[in-house]
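My hope is that you will study the protein record below before we discuss the fold together.
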Amino acid sequence: MKKVLAVAAVSGGLLLSAPAAFAATPAGHAGNPKAYLRVMPTAARAGAKVQIRLGCEASSTSDLASPVLKIGALRRVGPQNDPAKAPAAAASATVQAAAPGVYKVSFSCGGAELTTKFTVLGERRQVAKVPSGAPQTGGGPGDHGSLAAAGAMGVLALGGGGLVLARRSWRR
């Protein structure tokens, strides 16, 4: 009975992990399962710097392109002898002036084309509604609130001074 339960548990685990194994290979580059393409960060404004990382097992990579990124030269990065990872390369890019939206970044790894998305953000406004005119802070010469406050402070000062004098006369 214990053997039957152990076999059932192992079989169930294999059945559950099989779809995940097939899902790990994106359809866009099924011929190169270790190939990848990443843009970090995935969204930025015009003029910002971004990093592009890619990996490819194939002997040739080409056509790293995007309509909104000015991409610099690719350079090899990290150890290239890990069989679990594709050889990695990186490039710096600058976001060009473009309408806000989602754009494609792609490259060719062997015969497969890998793509990812990059979002160009719009201009950032500091406030939602830009104020007009001078700020209304109050406190001008005709403001009755400031006169009342000055009068109240004068009364408190006179009362405090009177209390000090009264206390001195009580001690004598």
